[in-house]
Amino acid sequence: MFSRIRRSFYRTSAWRLALRSTLVFAAGCAVVFLAMYIVVARAVQERSDSWLMGESETLKQVALTTPRDGLYDRIVEEVAEQASQEVSYDGSGHPIEGNTVFFAETNGSGQPPVWVGPEESAKFLEALRRIRPAQGTPVSVRVPGWRAPFRVVAVSMKPGEGHIYLGLLDAEAAALMRRLLVRFALGWLVMVVLGFLVTLMGLRRMLRRVDAITGTAASIRSDDLSTRVPVKDQRDEVARLARTFNNMLDRISSTVNQLRTLTDSMAHDLKSPITSVRGRLEIALSLDDRSQSAELVAGALEQLDRLSDVITTSLDVAEADGGALRLRPQTVDLSELAGRVAELYGPAFADNHQIFAISADRPVVVQMDVPLCTRMLSNLMENELHYAGAGAEVRLAIGEEGNFAAIRVEDNGPGFSAELLENAGDGSPEPTRVFHRFVKGSGSQGHGLGLAFVSAVAMAHGGRASARNRSDGRGAEIVVELPLGEGKHQPQQSTQASVS
Questions:
Q1: CA separation for the pair 225, 221 (Å, rounded)
Q2: 436-494: per-residue pLDDT in tens?
Q3: Backbone torsions φ then ψ of 112, nearest 5 degrees
Q4: Separation of alpha carbons 93 and 302, rounded Å
Q5: Which residues, in sequence order, are bridge partners of residue 495?
Q6: What domains lie within the chain, and their CATH numbers?
Q7: Helix (H) or strand (E) run with residue 151 in it
Q8: What CA–CA distance (Å, rounded) separates 58 from 24?
Q9: Neighbours of 72 (CB within 10 A)
Q10: Is the overall model pTM greater than 0.85, yes or no?
């Protein structure tokens, strides 16, 4: 069981991330502790060196002022012993274990040196002769048989009168530094271990939330997109990842639902025309009269053309909704293009006993894909022909509204039903249902793609489409807005036309 838990632990990335973070943390703490230790060690050494410098000058003055008679050596030794007691005993008169002081005076006459300190003076004097400390500067001198080095300062007497050496082994300070080093090491080790554990627990807690996202992604099936990652009231990166993942699932679910609706609607709408075409062709094959057969075949071809138009429009709308509709923009005067389309539909409005008028105050220059926008204007005209009603008045106006070119189509027909103007509430770019694919009125004989194509082309150009019933309650109004292009205020005669 333990080996299984260990394998599970090592398979996660938490311990590796925690180890890397801990190594960086450990290095930083080690640098800090080392710097603190160096600072304390220098302070302790400066304290010892300060005492050595002061006492060596005192001893030098005593040696220079004391007469060179039989009592000279005794007087100097007593003064040196008094100086050594300052660091060898505490304030209550008890000796400080391990602290050692030595004093040596050499002269140039070849007489034995004055010595105060440990009995093995020969080792000390040999070490001093080998090192030859610089005058007035404390140095570290190692003496055979002693674990720690002595701090020694040398002071020169008058020329020809030798030198004074004063050495100090501050065992108490050395022990303090050793204890401090051990405590620093233990503190560093505890901090590193605690840092590793805290980091590991934090990372494991965070990665468990990532595992929840992974588990949710693994549990999603093509027939069930309802699973979501639980999101707590947190605002960190993992919570944002979970929310983003859930939003992505929402969009995927919406897209799949739209695809299902699209396929179901297309299957329903294409089934009848295909059946009709098949029936016409079967009848044509069974007739001996070639004229009747040709008429039936022509009708079948017309039905096939309508099917092709439905499929092409559906694909264009789907590409526009997915942001994949390819545009070939050109700089075009929208007023002139609308005038040409209106001229083509004039006879159809007249045959339908509708009054049609187009007006444009001035040229409106737009960067647009001409074939797509021509089809968009044609769809608007077809919509008015079929749903404005016989005898209706239809008006097409081209103008500018802010930074947009506005295509406004108004009529005094029955208007839109309330259900078509409802908000779709599915988070789609175009919330009004009238612009959705395969959405149509109860009495419509079309496929519900005309206004969907209008909205798709507008959005593909960076514009928008809107629909409403007129404020006076008489008819409908559709407005398509497209971004204006360069040279939008070029002078040109306004377009006015009317067909009745």
A1: 6
A2: 765 665 555 556 677 888 888 888 888 888 888 887 778 888 899 999 876 444 433 44
A3: -60, 145
A4: 125
A5: 360
A6: 2-177 (3.30.450), 237-321 (1.10.287), 329-499 (3.30.565.10)
A7: strand 150-156
A8: 51
A9: 14
A10: no
